[in-house]
């Protein structure tokens, strides 16, 4: 037979204390552990990668909006078509010289063998109908403004504008002159600004490389498909 003292020792050994109930999750009623409550899973919301999201340092920015798992074949084809067209555009930018002042000398230096813009597929053309980029280098006067606009309208789409020098950006030294346009962006839309008085040929090269990066992220076909 089991003595009363032995039963009491067994009870003291296996009993559940209030401290154990709080920390180990035991129930006060039956002494069995409670089942954990399952948390509902959050549904993934697919949005445009450029809207409502902050990118970490070193993270690659995806320039295509069709990167979610449920994308259709048509969306994938349209995104890849944009990649192919942008690859061709960024490797064959043909600029048009529109030199108006001393900044045009640095633009000529940029075309020389020291910087060699031909290695990037950039070749100066003499007609706006065969160019992709117009480089406005120098002071734009009121008399030259309609010629600049007409030249820009003759360029085929897609077309880009590089504003080179302080005079082309905001009037520069002649900002308060009655015959000067205070920035060529009042006449044509500008994509890249190259500040300086005058900027060096290396600065123009850096601006053109930024334009190449912008062309790489164009989404003309995707925008057409979504609208």
UniProtKB/TrEMBL annotation:
<feature type="domain" description="NADH:ubiquinone oxidoreductase-like 20kDa subunit">
    <location>
        <begin position="102"/>
        <end position="209"/>
    </location>
</feature>
<dbReference type="GO" id="GO:0009060">
    <property type="term" value="P:aerobic respiration"/>
</dbReference>
<dbReference type="GO" id="GO:0032981">
    <property type="term" value="P:mitochondrial respiratory chain complex I assembly"/>
</dbReference>
<keyword id="KW-0408">Iron</keyword>
<dbReference type="InterPro" id="IPR006138">
    <property type="entry name" value="NADH_UQ_OxRdtase_20Kd_su"/>
</dbReference>
<keyword id="KW-0520">NAD</keyword>
<comment type="similarity">
    <text>Belongs to the complex I 20 kDa subunit family.</text>
</comment>
<dbReference type="GO" id="GO:0015990">
    <property type="term" value="P:electron transport coupled proton transport"/>
</dbReference>
<protein>
    <recommendedName>
        <fullName>Probable NADH dehydrogenase [ubiquinone] iron-sulfur protein 7, mitochondrial</fullName>
    </recommendedName>
</protein>
<keyword id="KW-0004">4Fe-4S</keyword>
<dbReference type="GO" id="GO:0045271">
    <property type="term" value="C:respiratory chain complex I"/>
</dbReference>
<keyword id="KW-0411">Iron-sulfur</keyword>
<dbReference type="GO" id="GO:0005739">
    <property type="term" value="C:mitochondrion"/>
</dbReference>
<dbReference type="InterPro" id="IPR006137">
    <property type="entry name" value="NADH_UbQ_OxRdtase-like_20kDa"/>
</dbReference>
<keyword id="KW-0479">Metal-binding</keyword>
<comment type="subunit">
    <text>Complex I is composed of 45 different subunits This is a component of the iron-sulfur (IP) fragment of the enzyme.</text>
</comment>
<dbReference type="GO" id="GO:0008137">
    <property type="term" value="F:NADH dehydrogenase (ubiquinone) activity"/>
</dbReference>
<dbReference type="GO" id="GO:0048038">
    <property type="term" value="F:quinone binding"/>
</dbReference>
<dbReference type="GO" id="GO:0046872">
    <property type="term" value="F:metal ion binding"/>
</dbReference>
<dbReference type="Pfam" id="PF01058">
    <property type="entry name" value="Oxidored_q6"/>
</dbReference>
<dbReference type="GO" id="GO:0051539">
    <property type="term" value="F:4 iron, 4 sulfur cluster binding"/>
</dbReference>
């Amino acid at each position: 037979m089991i003595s009363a003292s032995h039963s009491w020792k067994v009870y003291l050994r296996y009993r559940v204390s209030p401290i154990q109930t709080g920390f180990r999750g035991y129930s006060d009623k039956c002494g069995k552990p409670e089942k954990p409550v399952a948390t509902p899973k959050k549904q993934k919301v697919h949005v445009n990668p450029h809207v409502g999201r902050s990118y970490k340092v070193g993270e690659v920015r995806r320039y295509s909006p069709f990167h979610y798992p449920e994308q259709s074949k048509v969306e994938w084809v349209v995104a890849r078509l944009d990649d192919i067209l942008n690859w061709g555009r960024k490797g064959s930018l043909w600029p048009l010289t529109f030199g108006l002042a001393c900044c045009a000398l640095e633009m000529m230096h940029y075309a020389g063998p020291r910087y060699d813009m031909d290695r990037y597929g950039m070749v100066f053309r003499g007609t706006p109908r065969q160019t992709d980029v117009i480089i406005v280098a120098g002071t734009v006067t009121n008399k030259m403004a309609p010629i600049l606009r007409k030249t820009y309208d003759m360029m085929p789409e897609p077309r880009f504008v590089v504003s080179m020098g302080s005079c082309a950006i905001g009037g520069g030294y002649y900002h308060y002159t009655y015959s000067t346009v205070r920035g060529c962006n009042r006449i044509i839309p500008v994509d890249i600004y190259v500040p300086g008085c005058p900027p060096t040929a290396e600065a123009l090269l850096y601006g053109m490389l930024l334009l190449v990066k912008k062309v790489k992220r164009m989404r003309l076909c995707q925008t057409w498909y979504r609208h």
